[in-house]
Write a structure and sequence with these properties.
By secondary structure, the protein is of the alpha+beta class. The protein has six helices and five strands. The longest helix is centred in the last third of the chain and has 41 residues, at about 160-200. The protein is elongated, with a radius of gyration of 49 Å.
């Protein structure tokens, strides 16, 4: 009887030690609040690629090539394999586009001297400053509207100022040569016209015969006027 009582008391004490203490309502709410804060899911961090993609959404790409002067042809020629895509904003002006283009070409081609003097050209070899045929300052967006092409189809060029000045000199020499040729042709035509007029208006004297009564007379037609 005594042994059974001891076993019963031991099992009761073991059960009370294992069974957790019952919580009050306030303690239960506090514990749940702590669990919600510690297990709250955090928002995933944006990767660098996503951020850079968002920053590049407003940028567009155009092609910038290089032109050089060819002595044999006397004209500016496009260098093959030297065109690069340049990413810029649509509101980019001529100066900003020029800086972007020269900087990128300097990074990709060792033969390109960034510190040389260059000009930014339209496809027809005119310097980019204003919009074609207008007084409005150049912006890429406005040029694209005027051109009626997508940005990916726009090609502009950079050229050494030395080469660009050569094409100017060539055109000046050609214009001077044409002017001289035109003047000489006008002078030649005028000379021919005056000669023709003289031949038409000059009276023709008839040949005279020797007077039988004056055998020593000399025909006046033998002498020039």
């Amino acid at each position: 009887m005594l042994l059974f009582s001891a076993i019963s008391a031991a099992s009761t004490s073991t059960t009370s030690a294992v069974t957790p203490r019952s919580l009050s309502y306030e303690d239960f709410c506090k514990r749940k609040a702590i669990e919600r804060v510690t297990t709250l899911p955090t928002a995933p961090k944006k990767s660098k690629s996503i951020k850079s993609k968002a920053n590049n959404q407003d940028k567009v790409k155009i092609q910038i090539g290089i032109k050089e002067f060819h002595e044999t042809d006397g004209a500016l020629k496009i260098l093959k394999g030297r065109s690069l895509p340049v990413s810029v904003e649509p509101s980019t002006n001529a100066k900003q586009l020029f800086e972007k283009a020269t900087d990128k070409h300097a990074k990709h081609f060792r033969s390109f001297n960034q510190y040389d003097r260059y000009v930014l050209l339209y496809p027809d070899n005119t310097i980019i400053d204003k919009l074609p045929g207008a007084l409005e300052d150049f912006t890429l967006e406005r040029y694209k509207e005027e051109l009626g092409k997508p940005y990916s189809k726009i090609s502009l060029y950079i050229c050494r100022k030395e080469c660009f000045e050569k094409i100017d000199l060539e055109s000046d020499c050609d214009s001077i040569g044409d002017e001289v040729l035109e003047r000489s042709q006008i002078a030649k035509n005028s000379s021919v016209q005056r000669s023709t007029e003289l031949s038409i208006t000059r009276p023709i004297r008839p040949f005279c015969t020797v007077d039988e009564k004056k055998p020593d007379s000399i025909c006046a037609s033998h002498f020039p006027y």
